[in-house]
Amino acid sequence: MTGKRSNQREILWQEWVKYKEATSAVSSDVEIHRALKIATCRELARDMARFRSSGNKEDGLYAQLTSLMDVYRGVLASKSRHDEFSCVIVEILSAFEARLSFFERDAAEYLSDFYNPIAKEKDEIMEASILYVADLIDREFGIFSSSGDSQSDITKIFDKLYGYYKEGLRIAFMSLGDIRTRKNARFFLGAFEREMNFLENLSQAKLSDLETLEPEDPAERDIVERVVKVLRETPVYLVWFQNDYHSQESHVDVCRSFVEFEKALKDEISVVQPRGNSKETFEEAMSIETRVIIDKIRHSYMKGAYRLRQVIASDVLLTTEIIEAFTKTLGDMPELTPDGDASETERLITSGIIETIEIKIESLNDSLREFKQRTEKLVNTFASEKELFPETMCKEALNVLMETWMKSPPEEGGVDEFFESSKDGEAFVEIKHIVDKKLSASMEKAEKNAFKYKKEVLLFEVCTYEEILTHSVSRLRQSNSEAVIEAAKVLDDAFVMLEVILRKNNIKMLRPVPHDLFNAKEHEVLVAEKQDGFAKGEIIKIVNAGYMHGETIIIRANVIAAK
Questions:
Q1: Rounded distance between C-alpha atoms, residue 426 and residue 431, angstroms
Q2: I want to staple 285 with a disulfide (CB 3.0 to 4.6 A). Which of 12, 181, 307, 409 is the partner?
Q3: Which helix (H) or strand (E) covers residue 553, if one does?
């Protein structure tokens, strides 16, 4: 448990003790002191938040830099398509790989899937300033109480509280206002400046050479286009850095006047009863603990966005690998010229197959774009859910928690155990049920979407390619032309490559052999016929393979069975 949580629970226990005693030993001054402390820290938090939001553009450093690293990864991912490149491409790819490696090594301690490290650092600065001011006020109240001043003289310390408030702002502003005093922000600013220098130098040295390159190999041509795109986009990053980030408006002046500050504190005192309000302050402390547990439930829901992205990312990667396999096949196909030894029929068959594969690549790219848009919308809708459950349920949870405490209060030192057991107790059952139901519904929708995409897009393209092998490539295998036989081998190897890709992604081919018994779950009979040597229900021949993902059948194998 963090020091902040431990301190909060200590306060809760103290309020509980006050509530139990409910005697004159509870000084009204103490209650007013606490109200003033809360009000001062609240005004400080509000004004720091206003100051923080006025300089938000620096948070974009993290987003811009991680986006650039994703671009590097995308370029490097294309290396797997081809083994040999021109010297200039090899040099650039090596440079990208080194930049990415350096960044991942140096940024390891800063990166997170759940928050922007620059924004988190700002929040920590604000929290530290509030805790510092709270400590100053606690010490001031101790001096004030021991001096014997009466309640009517409490307003005399408003000027001191105002001084603590301004000191808290000053401490926060010193860090929030200067990016180079903050470890996280300083790292990402330095990293971004280094990448800008690297890309500017690379663009000046290599862009003109790359723009004149005309590689024959499709894979190398693709990499050249990707790298040129990156270098041409460098000015976009520079424009943002120079015109947007560096020209951001200075932080607004948020320090309120003493009159405004005094009014806020007097308003707070006006609602504090001189005596007998121990129950209210204890309930307020319990309310904070209730919110902490509810926030953890919300956080578990937000982790679902990461799980949704994992479901989507696996299909995006699978699609990319299938596209690359088809692209490689086109690149490996030998050219059948009219003056070669291939027949006209063989040339026409081969030309038709090549055209079909090109259509498959285009279709897969289009389907992938649509799938990304559709699923990204699902994730964004999930992550932007603002009201997971009605606010009234939070109050109901507090009431149940209060009732549980009152019936069986913990012993001193047992507060942590009480809340640890309460988070799985009656108070939060309904809230958890609603959150789990929404998460399950979103996961089910994403998985159905992924299943449909695999079946109707990815495996459809694989199945139809297998039909090409069965009906067209089978004719090329019998050719007397070495070039045609080589073409048939390239096309056969492509299917082997597809099978390896599918297996790597936990998709297994269902390919029964003759005499296997028909299984309605895995097989679909296209034709039933009598055949010597085959008993009823035995498979005579497989027409098309089936596919299963994990334990789920996606497509049944098409077979001819004996009757």
A1: 10
A2: 12
A3: strand 552-555
Determine contact, residues 551/559, Cβ cutoff 8 Å: no
The percentage of the chain sitting over the pLDDT mark of 90, rounded to a whole number, equals 21
Tokens of 488: 């048939």
Q: How far is CA 249 from CA 45, 174, 221, 277, in A?
A: 21, 17, 43, 46
Q: Across the beta sheet with 523-529, what order do the strands follow?
A: 523-529, 557-562, 539-544
Please tell me the predicted confidence (pLDDT) of residue 142.
60
Provide the CA 309 distance to its chain's centre, in angstroms. 7
Q: And the tokens for 89?
A: 């491409």
553 bridge partner residues: 548
DSSP 342-353: S-HHHHHHHHHH
Query: How far apart (Å, rounded) are the C-alpha atoms in residues 393 and 458?
Result: 44
DSSP label of 335: P
> What mean pLDDT comes out for the span 258-281?
67
Burial class (CB within 10 angstroms; exposed 0-12, middle 13-18, buried 19+) of 184: buried
* Segment 137-140 long-range contacts (CB within 8 Å, at least 24 positions apart): 137/33, 137/36, 137/37, 137/40, 137/41, 137/161, 137/164, 138/37, 140/164
Q: Using alpha carbons, select from 502, 449, 546 the residue that is nearest to residue 318.
A: 502
Contacts of 5 (CB under 8 A, 6+ apart): 292
Q: Using one digit for the tens of pLDDT, what is the confidence trace for 85-122? A: 678 788 888 888 888 888 888 887 777 666 788 888 88
DSSP state, residue 538 = B
Contact 128, 97 (CB under 8 A): no
Do residues 330 and 465 make contact, with C-beta atoms less than 8 angstroms apart?
Answer: no
CA 61 vs. chain centroid, Å, equals 17
Comparing 131-135, 228-232, 251-255, 401-405, which segment has the lowest mean pLDDT? 251-255
Residue 340 region by backbone torsions, left for phi larger than 0, else alpha for psi between -120 and 50, else beta: beta
Structure tokens at 23: 């005697």
Measured between alpha carbons, how far is 418 from 316 in angstroms, rounded to an integer?
A: 45
Using alpha carbons, select from 18, 270, 234 the residue that is nearest to residue 155.
270
Compute the distance between CA of residue 344 and CA of residue 338 in angstroms, rounded to an integer.
8
- At 213, list the tokens: 């390159």
Tokens representing residue 196 in the block:
């800008």
Mean pLDDT of the chain: 81
Neighbours of 399 (CB within 10 A): 14
